[in-house]
């Protein structure tokens, strides 16, 4: 089973930036996902979709709350064995972006990301006002 590990979280002031990373391990040789995405969960709230990227086409989806501030991307390096790595550049951060951020593989159907796989530990993002 593919394992995903999130990193890059931290404490930042409102208006600041962070870059999250998600790396896959324990994956089958030459494995590539259909899509990957980010979710987040703030204290006392349900998990919510943040962004997703179609792996072959690099088409992206964003939640309205992060459009124009967050940018999702994938590794573009060319190697014999595909590197499964995804990033979330978060700019103009707001206190309401405070949450644990998770990455998952999945598929995009009708412009909606459907997550698959196992939720990892996530990475904490805290934005102070």
Descriptive report:
With 129 residues, the protein is an all-beta fold. 0% of the residues lie in helices and 52% in strands. It contains no helices and eleven strands. The chain has strands at residues 3-7, 10-13, 18-25, 35-41, 48-54, 60-62, 70-74, 85-90, 99-109, 112-116, 123-128. Strands 2, 4, 5, 6, 9, 10 and 11 form a seven-stranded mixed β-sheet that branches. A four-stranded antiparallel β-sheet has the order 1-3-8-7, with no helix packed on it. A hairpin with a 2-residue loop joins strand 9 (99-109) and strand 10 (112-116). It is globular, with a radius of gyration of 14 Å. It starts with a strand and ends with a strand.
Overall body shape: globular
Which range does the strand content fall in?
over 45%
Helix proportion of residues, in percent?
A: under 10%
SSE class: mainly beta
For the biggest sheet, the summary is: 7 strands, mixed
Average pLDDT for all residues: 93
Calculate Rg over CA atoms: 14 Å
What's the tally of helices? 0
The span between the termini is: 40 Å
Strand-and-helix sequence, N→C?
Answer: EEEEEEEEEEE
Poorly predicted tracts of residues: none
Count of distinct strands: 11
């Amino acid at each position: 089973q593919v394992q995903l590990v999130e990193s890059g979280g931290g404490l930042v002031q409102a208006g600041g930036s962070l870059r999250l990373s998600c790396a896959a391990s324990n994956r089958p040789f030459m494995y590539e996902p259909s899509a990957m995405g980010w979710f987040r969960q703030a204290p006392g709230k349900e998990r919510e979709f943040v962004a997703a990227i179609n792996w072959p086409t690099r088409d992206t989806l964003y939640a309205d709350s992060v459009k124009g501030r967050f940018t999702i991307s994938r590794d573009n390096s060319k190697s014999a064995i595909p590197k499964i790595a995804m990033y979330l550049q978060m700019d103009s951060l707001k206190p309401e972006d405070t949450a644990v951020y998770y990455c998952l593989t999945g598929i995009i159907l009708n412009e909606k990301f459907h997550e698959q796989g196992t939720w990892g530990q996530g990475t904490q993002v805290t934005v102070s006002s």
